[in-house]
Hints:
alpha/beta, Spore Coat Polysaccharide Biosynthesis Protein SpsA, Chain A, six-stranded mixed β-sheet, two-stranded antiparallel ribbon, 7 helices, 8 strands, globular
Amino acid sequence: MNNIFKTINFFFHNNFRLKYKTEIPQDRSNDLKEIKNTKKYKIKIITSYDDKFKNIGDITSKTFEKYAEKYDYVFENVKMPKFDRPYAWNKIKILLDEIKKNNFEYLLWVDADSYFNIYEKNISEIIDEKKEIYMAKHYCEVHKGTKYKNTKLTILRINSGVILLKSSNYNFNFLTKVWNNKKFINHQWWEQAAIMDIIGLRAEINHNLNDNIGNNILDKIKFLSGRWNSIPSRLDISMEKHNPIIIHMAGMKNDDRERYLKKNLLN
Length: 267
């Protein structure tokens, strides 16, 4: 039986990947035991939510505050700006404003439907000063499907719900490009789709599986362990990680989020 699985794995590795370039280039150093950065950085943790999200955000933001206190960071729940765009875009405007202020070396944005699950891992430890942008990626099912029975195609998709940014001119220019990428204002993934377009990972937004090889911006991105952005999932292709640092309740209805928090965080 093991030989059968090895043969199947060899077939897909050497045939499917030649046809579709669908993988985000991997930083091989992440596969090894990562060297911890012991340097101290000025980091600000930021979230924002409106009154409709208050029942959830008031709970999750307490974990952001607790994490900030543990590592001597600053936390702010920024009042949600009012723009003629879906609310998810506000993170881009808020982060641009924070970079302008130039009060911190790094900015950690955490969506309000996320919370810290454990507090033992310091975000500073994963910083590589050659990188500008830090976020997680997940294997997600490609809806295009495959002709092979009992087989699912997957693709690596970034997730901007948790994102660490160096407060730099590079990122100010990067976020400005994201903000100005107006064709994605009403896309189902909003600013995340704009980011995917700009960094050249377009397969899921233009339905061309070959258009996912990325560009030179990827050289400035460090992809974090999924533990920093673990998404609870009942799907066959799970985005949930063991012992997650941050749990991100992405894709849930608010009632389900409240029940999840009551069961997993408040008890």
